Amino acid sequence: MTTHTFDIIVLGGGSGGYAAALRASELGKSVALIEKDKVGGTCLHRGCIPTKALLHAAEVADHVRDAASVGVTASLSGIDAEGVRAYREGIVAKKYKGLEGLVKARGITTVAGEGRLNADRSVSVGDDVYVGSDVVLATGSYSRTLPGLEIGGRILTSDQALALDVIPERVIVLGGGVIGVEFASVWRSFGVEVTIVEALPHLVPNEDIAMSKGLERAFRRRGIQYSLGVRFQRATQDDTSVTVTLEDGSEFTADYLLVAVGRGPATADLGFEEAGVVLDRGFVTVDKELRTGAPGVWAVGDIVPGLQLAHRGFQQGIAVAERIAGLSPAIIPDAQIPKVTYSSPEVASVGLTEEAAVAEHGADAVTTYEYNLAGNGKSEIIGTGGLVKVVRQKDGPVLGVHLIGDRVGELITEGQLAVAWEAHPEDIAPLIHAHPTQSEALGEAFLALAGKPLHAL
Ligand SMILES: Cc1cc2nc3c(=O)[nH]c(=O)nc-3n(C[C@H](O)[C@H](O)[C@H](O)COP(=O)(O)OP(=O)(O)OC[C@H]3O[C@@H](n4cnc5c(N)ncnc54)[C@H](O)[C@@H]3O)c2cc1C
């Protein structure tokens, strides 16, 4: 047994873990970053980056298909699954190389292997023991399935769906949340017959109802089928197809079934509870500053209950590193974290939905305004419809910003500033949005809420 001593031991090199390691090293700490697979984690290798590469390829396919509508002569002769794979893998490889270089340049020691927390809060990797005054747990998450629904063969998680080297003819997507909706969007653009099965009454059910309805309309127009409000009962597969049966007896048959019903925390059998870390249904219980029940042990990323997003992991990792170094970073509530579903159209939001705002402040204290992208020049030019919805407290700050339309994900930062800075629409209304941009649609909503609409009634 060899003991290695560092200031900080980080267990898991995904978004949360590597952000903690990078910031801690910047602050002069010695860091061991333990990773059993590849630094970069789910987001870089199996999540955000490869799926967004797929979505970009899908967007290009749609543009080529629709080229005649803008007077460009082109025709889509097919999707080359191998070419798409090479493009996607090339992007991931470049980003991975850059990240590895950065981690090395910051003097972080990466340890390849599976780590386990010991009762004395050291971390073992094989015969080596890593000791630090602080340990950051960042072991991430895995794709969940439903009871009785076994992954394998034609029944895939997002990991296997990404690795598929064929473009299927028909796919069923179980789950109408962000991951399911993004894959459905990609496949449809690649010419696949797609059916989404969602047990709740709407797609993207965590979003404002106006966004869910907008996405449902847009998907219907794109020929994406969906079944809402009926629960999954079983799936059976043979050599050529998979059939899904719902509780109302309806059946769907396709080449593959993607199971996208959420992600569970990867915390089992890692010694966490024996070391005094409290778990609740597998998630790590933390205080507002991300301290676990064990002194000197912190948790960040998808193992912490709340939004499972890479940028939340980055933010938490940075904040924990700063706290360990004696700084006092702000506590960012989940309601101030922007969320983007990168389908076509995109859905982006920050802050409270109208329903949540009414529940928190009362119906009389909440005002909303909806600006249709039909009135926005740039949206017309790029051929997207959609909506901006701003929720404000009456005579008070902006509580939520909700967007749907192609490319609107890029606009959500302005919404985040408005919500986090508790800006009143009257504060933002005098600030000018460049013309013609899609951001003008947000500007129009703020102008209208400030009582001086420009291109609206
Ligand atoms: C298909 C898909 C698309 C996504 N798209 C987006 C998106 O567009 N935007 C967004 O913000 N988020 C997206 N996410 C979510 C995002 O990937 C996660 O929120 C983020 O990766 C969480 O970071 P993390 O550090 O908590 O965990 P992870 O990234 O999962 O990293 C955990 C790391 O810990 C390692 N590990 C686990 N246990 C051990 C151990 N015992 N010893 C050593 N190493 C260990 C794992 O190998 C892994 O590398 C997506 C996820 C998926 C699946």
What small ligands are held by the chains?
flavin-adenine dinucleotide
Major sheet strand order: 4-3-2-8-21
Q: Radius of gyration, Cα only, in angstroms? A: 23 Å
Backbone shape = globular
Which regions contain 5 or more consecutive residues with pLDDT less than 50?
A: none
Average pLDDT, all residues: 97
Number of helices: 13
The secondary-structure class comes to alpha/beta
Summarize the structure.
The chain is an alpha/beta fold.
Task: Report on the architecture of this protein.
One of its GO terms (molecular function) is dihydrolipoyl dehydrogenase (NADH) activity. Belongs to the class-I pyridine nucleotide-disulfide oxidoreductase family. It is an enzyme of class 1 (oxidoreductase). This is Dihydrolipoyl dehydrogenase. The strands form seven sheets. Strands 4-3-2-8-21 form a five-stranded parallel β-sheet, covered by helices on one side. The protein is an alpha/beta fold and 457 residues long. The chain is globular, with a radius of gyration of 23 Å. It has helices at 15-26, 41-46, 48-65, 81-105, 158-163, 178-189, 209-222, 310-324, 354-361, 377-382, 412-420, 425-428, 439-449; strands spanning 2-5, 8-11, 31-35, 109-112, 115-117, 123-125, 128-131, 134-137, 141-143, 155-156, 170-174, 193-198, 225-228, 232-237, 242-246, 251-254, 256-259, 263-265, 279-280, 283-284, 297-299, 339-341, 346-351, 366-372, 387-393, 398-405. The protein starts with a strand and ends in an 8-residue tail after the last helix. The mean pLDDT is 97. The longest helix is centred in the N-terminal third of the chain and has 25 residues, at 81-105. Bound molecules: flavin-adenine dinucleotide.
